[in-house]
Specification:
Blueprint: H1 3-7, H2 17-39, H3 44-62, H4 82-100, H5 110-142, H6 146-159, H7 165-185, H8 189-205, H9 208-211, H10 217-222, H11 237-244
Helix pairs in contact: 2-3, 2-5, 4-8, 5-6, 5-7, 5-8, 6-7
Length: 255
């Protein structure tokens, strides 16, 4: 059974012209809103963040294909759990190297790390959902092969992390791997967990002045060295986090 039979009734590039136009329009609208959030200063950023949430939710609801197709299922969870193990190995190696180079920072203690991890884990799941269930699923209708769809989705994912060169390179690699794994297993949960592990690892091993505290978009350009280094609550979620008093790293936009 192919990955596409497992999760979708559409072969890559086989959608009707009307369906292709709709998929392209949905990608353009959602991606345009995400970029607008990343490059808009406050207080307008927070308003755009909520607009993006509502619009993307409406698009997803209008074209809902079922939880199974979106990878929100129990099937293949344990078979794909090796991804989390691989992420933990990468994390352990990176932390060991960082400790030897004396670049490891503890984000003000283990308690802060634990408090921040759950919020970042949720946002990791949101990012993986957007990458696989929104953009990849629509690109499969537009492009002739699954690999082209996977690499194009990864490219869009990385492009949203500009002008941060560290995150752009890492996300194009992770995005490609994650999309290919998703197409094989059609389960989103291990990918979200692995994303959280890798993101937290970057937060504690990469010096803040190198990756600008994991900022992207306008936040990357506004960064100045010496700002407090905290755990990442990336991207647009930062706007809503302010409303509830949750902040894991200092202001700025991250994705």
């Amino acid at each position: 059974m192919t990955a596409f039979n497992a999760g979708s009734n559409l072969e890559p590039g086989s959608a009707r012209p009307q369906s292709k136009r709709r998929a392209l329009a949905e990608i353009a609208i959602a991606y345009g809103l995400i970029l607008a959030v990343l490059w808009t200063p406050r207080p307008w950023q927070q308003m755009l963040w909520w607009v993006a949430i509502v619009v993307i939710a409406i698009i997803i609801g209008a074209s809902f294909e079922g939880f199974r197709a979106m990878g929100l299922r129990a099937g293949n969870f344990f078979r794909s759990l090796w991804v989390v193990g691989a992420a933990l190995v990468v994390s352990a190696v990176a932390v060991t190297i960082s400790a030897r180079l004396h670049t490891l920072h503890d984000s003000h203690g283990a308690l802060t790390l634990l408090e921040g991890f759950w919020a970042y884990a949720i946002w990791s799941g949101v990012q993986q959902f957007l990458l696989q269930c929104f953009f990849l699923s629509r690109l499969l209708r537009l492009l002739p092969s699954p690999r082209q769809a996977a690499f194009t989705a990864a490219f869009l994912f990385a492009l949203a992390h500009l002008p941060n060169p560290v995150l752009a390179v890492l996300t194009v690699v992770w995005g490609s791997i994650a999309c290919l794994i998703f197409l094989h297993y059609r389960n989103l949960y291990p990918l979200a967990i692995a994303h959280a592990v890798l993101g937290i690892t970057i937060a504690v091993v990469v010096p803040g002045h190198v990756d600008h505290n994991m900022r992207v978009g306008l936040g990357y350009l506004k960064y100045h060295r010496g700002q407090h280094h905290r755990l990442p609550l990336e991207a647009p979620v930062r706007a809503s986090a302010d409303a509830v008093g949750t902040s894991l790293r200092p202001g700025g936009t991250r994705f």
